[in-house]
Amino acid sequence: MIRSLTGTSLIEYPGKICSIVFISGCNLHCPFCHNPELVREDLLDRQYGLSHDRVLQELKAREGFVEAVTITGGEPLLYGGLGDLVRRIKEETALSVKLDTNGTLPDRLNDILHHVDYVAMDLKSSPGKYLRATGEKAAFEDVRASIGIVRSLPAYEFRTTMVPGIVERDDVLEVLGETGRVKRYVLQAFHSRKTLSSDYTDIPTYPKGYIEATADTIRKLDLADEVGIRP
Q: Which domains does the chain have, with CATH numbers?
């Protein structure tokens, strides 16, 4: 289900002003997730959603200012209408399309690739911490196929949220050792004001300097063409 649409973002699509379409529902249960309303069954309002026509209407109204649209979640690949939605966006607008995914559905990812321009895939933590990071819902082996798919694309990024207790600098370096050198890697700051698990709500987050030093280490080790930090 399409839960909502945000009109303008300057950070979600590299180099482009974009709108954001939020898809509800997720097959993971990451305790640090900052969008619990898109994950928890008791918070999913099945009566509240946007039609494809409404989404296209909103996007067309912003064309000329907005250059792209990011489809995120939740996990967008769980949405049965995703192919139709993306096809219509490409046919009826001039917007570029970015897809966010957790990488656990490689077959569905393959099916949608010819409609999207950019893919951002989450890498939750190092292999040994993957079960914990996903709420016991996925292991690193579950995302290996998607890593290979994404690395073959012309435009992509991998990203990791820096969550104390789940992701340390060594975890980032270990997961990049598993992927091999990537085009773009993004470290995301963890925001603890609202989380799926109360265990992670309002916990102290990493200082800015720690994340910047982690990014510098990735650069020095030449593990990515480009390293970004998302506040």
A: 2-230 (3.20.20.70)
